[in-house]
């Protein structure tokens, strides 16, 4: 069997995983796979990417996907396989003795927890919320246990996300909002609205009357959170290296044209080329959301992914020597603000499933994600905190001056002085879909030789699930190759038997029957 040519569009978690596992599967089958990965960004990792504070390569900060957890089988396995180091700096972030986490509703902190004081904080949770935290943990485990069956036979590889979700009883969870699912399972409204909703907001910028039940449970599976030192993008870079893939960065795929023999001509454009380059592939795996890909496919595939609404998330990173101002959060002067500030809605705010439900807080989270010495001549190695804000709108100088407790500029569009904020980086992501309740999901195989991984985004949107779908598609492609190889071997065996019969009859002087190729 000749070498198989595979194009993978996108070098994020899904594309990198697909390349890695397809390379392994092809090797096990004795098939050579030439894998080419097209990525329109100048880096590998997709939403898992880092930026460098003050342009210092020694201060990388995650801009997108920040953490994974110990139950993330694909990601954790890759970290171990590639011997990547886990970042252990999180415990040292922020002002000394500051509370670890706080949930703010725009008026007050409804909850504050302290690092290293687990049993006391558990007691406070039970006093305020009764048995709701324990019930939620048990419900989360029972729900995610169903999901983890997708990794193993007989469910893996799954040819239909809709069918495997139904078979595992997960469509009953995705059919309900988080609010409905929690109510059905006896989780008190106070805990749901304060703690669980704070988690869905920081993870998906969505309130529990909007987001579906499965994604709500995923938000509560935080045990063993970790990150790779230097950036999680290294996981996917290592996958592509191990796959020996031809990775073409800064390259935009513009067209796919299916040929009569089932192959695809792929048109791409890069800054180095003055015209569209064309390459031929036996299979194409699209890992970017179809609606944002801008790829013209001819003829149109049998299955076209639906256009769905995505969250437009503003991420703001900035460095400042100032702690967060307690007055901005309704605290007494001199009180330390928690290192991680999550938000929820106040009791008098009810947005239902309105996607514009950020409420009085005006943001989803503020967290201290690093620290360093300002290298500028004027600062003279001044220690500064590095903050990250998730919000539905652009963070302006008025907002920053308020949370830092410093004077605002006359024009809110002006930046704060370098003495107050020495570095700012802003990014707007189409970060993940609005996870509205649903029971059907996009097809994985769009047409013969054309595969799609981003349909899992409306089911669960994480680095892990994208990597799982990449692994799943890689297995499906390899299984097709295995079937073709088996059919080819059977044809060869038939021809060989006919040739033997031809020779035997020829020796006996009988009229031979010509072997059919």
Description:
This protein has 517 residues and is α/β, with parallel strands linked by helices. It has a domain at 85-228 and 309-433: Polyamine Oxidase, Chain A, domain 2, CATH 3.90.660. 32% of the residues lie in helices and 21% in strands. The protein has helices at residues 13-29, 73-81, 118-129, 132-148, 161-167, 171-174, 178-184, 189-204, 213-219, 233-242, 290-293, 397-404, 463-507; strands at residues 4-9, 33-38, 50-52, 60-62, 101-104, 109-113, 246-248, 252-258, 264-269, 277-281, 283-286, 296-298, 310-320, 340-343, 365-374, 382-391, 423-433, 445-447, 450-452. The strands form four sheets. Strands 6-5-14-15-16-13-17 form a seven-stranded mixed β-sheet, with helices on one face. Strand 3 and strand 4 (60-62) form a beta hairpin. The longest helix is centred in the last third of the chain and has 45 residues, at 463-507. The radius of gyration is 27 Å and the shape is globular.
Note the topology.
Blueprint: E1 4-9, H1 13-29, E2 33-38, E3 50-52, E4 60-62, H2 73-81, E5 101-104, E6 109-113, H3 118-129, H4 132-148, H5 161-167, H6 171-174, H7 178-184, H8 189-204, H9 213-219, H10 233-242, E7 246-248, E8 252-258, E9 264-269, E10 277-281, E11 283-286, H11 290-293, E12 296-298, E13 310-320, E14 340-343, E15 365-374, E16 382-391, H12 397-404, E17 423-433, E18 445-447, E19 450-452, H13 463-507
Parallel strand pairs: 1-2, 1-11, 2-7, 5-14, 8-12, 11-19
Antiparallel strand pairs: 3-4, 5-6, 8-9, 9-10, 13-16, 13-17, 14-15, 15-16, 18-19
Helix pairs in contact: 1-10, 1-13, 7-9
């Amino acid at each position: 069997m000749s070498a198989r040519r595979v194009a993978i569009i996108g070098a994020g978690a899904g594309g990198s995983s697909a390349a890695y596992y397809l390379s392994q599967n092809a090797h096990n089958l004795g098939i050579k796979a030439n894998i080419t990965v097209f990525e329109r960004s100048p880096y590998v990792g997709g939403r898992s990417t880092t930026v460098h504070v003050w342009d210092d390569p020694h201060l990388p900060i995650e801009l997108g996907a920040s953490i994974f957890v110990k139950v993330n089988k694909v990601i954790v396995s890759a970290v171990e396989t590639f011997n990547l180091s886990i970042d252990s700096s999180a415990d040292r972030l922020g002002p000394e003795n500051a509370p670890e986490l706080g949930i703010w509703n725009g008026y007050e902190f409804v909850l504050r927890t302290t690092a290293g004081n687990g049993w006391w904080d558990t007691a406070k949770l039970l006093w305020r919320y009764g048995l709701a935290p324990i019930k939620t943990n048990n419900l989360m485990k029972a729900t995610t246990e169903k999901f983890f069956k997708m990794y193993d036979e007989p469910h893996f590889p799954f040819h239909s996300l809709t069918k495997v979700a139904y078979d595992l009883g997960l469509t009953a969870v995705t059919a309900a909002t988080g609010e409905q699912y929690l109510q059905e399972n006896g989780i008190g409204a106070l805990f749901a609205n304060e703690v669980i909703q704070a988690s869905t907001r920081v993870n998906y910028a969505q309130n529990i009357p909007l987001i579906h039940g499965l994604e709500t449970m995923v938000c509560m599976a935080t045990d063993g959170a970790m990150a790779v030192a230097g950036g999680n993008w290294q996981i996917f870079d290592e996958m592509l290296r191990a796959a020996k893939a031809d990775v073409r960065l800064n390259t935009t795929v513009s067209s796919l044209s299916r040929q009569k023999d089932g192959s695809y001509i792929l048109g791409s454009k890069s800054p180095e080329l003055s015209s569209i380059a064309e390459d031929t592939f036996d299979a194409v795996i699209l890992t970017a959301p179809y609606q944002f890909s801008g790829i013209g496919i001819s003829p149109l595939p049998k299955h076209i992914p639906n256009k769905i609404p995505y969250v437009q998330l503003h991420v703001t990173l900035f460095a400042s020597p100032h702690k967060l101002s307690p007055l901005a959060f309704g605290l007494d002067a001199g009180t330390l603000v928690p290192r991680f500030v999550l938000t929820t809605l106040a009791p008098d705010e009810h947005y239902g499933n309105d996607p514009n439900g950020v409420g009085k807080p005006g943001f989803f989270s503020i967290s201290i994600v690093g620290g360093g010495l300002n290298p500028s001549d004027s600062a003279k190695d001044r220690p500064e905190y590095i903050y990250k804000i998730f919000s539905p709108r652009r963070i302006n100088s008025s907002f920053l001056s308020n949370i830092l407790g410093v004077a605002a500029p006359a024009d809110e569009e002006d930046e704060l002085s370098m003495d107050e904020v020495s570095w700012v980086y802003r990014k707007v992501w189409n970060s993940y879909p609005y996870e509205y309740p649903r029971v059907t999901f996009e097809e994985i195989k769009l047409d013969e030789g054309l595969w799609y991984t981003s349909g899992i985004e409306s089911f669960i949107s994480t680095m892990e699930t994208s990597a799982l779908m990449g692994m799943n598609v890689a297995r499906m492609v390899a299984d097709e190759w295995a079937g073709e190889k088996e059919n080819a071997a059977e044809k060869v065996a038939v021809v060989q038997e006919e040739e033997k019969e031809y020779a035997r009859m020829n020796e006996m002087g009988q009229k031979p029957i010509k072997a059919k190729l």
